[in-house]
Amino acid sequence: MYLAYLPAIGIFIGLALVFTVYLPKLYMLNWLYLVFGFGSIYFGGLLKLDGNIQKLTPFGWLQDIPVKSLDLAAITTLCVIAFSLIFVSIIGYRRKDLV
Fold first, then answer.
1. Which has the closest alpha carbon to 17: 7, 30, 6?
2. Is 13 within 8 Å of 90 (Cβ atoms)?
3. CA-to-CA distance for 17 and 23, rounded, in angstroms?
4. Are 19 and 26 in contact, with CB atoms under 8 Å apart?
5. DSSP conformation class of 2
6. Secondary structure class of 69 (helix, strand, coil)
């Protein structure tokens, strides 16, 4: 596994936590988003999807990393989003425990 993919994985973990804390009945949306991300990246060329559709997922911003140079702005943005989602989820868990 390439370490540059960790921010994208962190976003999916953060989304799973947000759905679990705030919208437990809609947690399946995270799985749909993950399947969409996988399908758009791996089958995007076969289906001739636009590059903007592939960039709707975190992996769309990182798909050319082993071949091209690392885009620090994209990595930093994805890290900030992932940490924000996880932080919001931690706050939600603490508030649930207090109730």
1. 30
2. no
3. 9
4. yes
5. -
6. coil
Tens digit of pLDDT for each residue in 51-88? 788 888 888 887 666 667 777 888 899 999 999 999 99
| Half-sphere exposure of residue 75: CA atoms within 13 angstroms, side-chain side | 11
Total-model pTM: 0.82
Residues near 3 by Cβ (< 8 Å), separated by ≥ 6?
A: none
Please answer whether residues 40 and 53 qualify as being in contact, where contact means their C-beta atoms are separated by less than 8 angstroms.
yes
Please give the DSSP secondary-structure letter assigned to residue 68: S
Here the tokens at position 70 are 């690392």
DSSP label at 43?
Answer: S
Residue 8: which of 56, 69, 67 has the closest Cα? 56
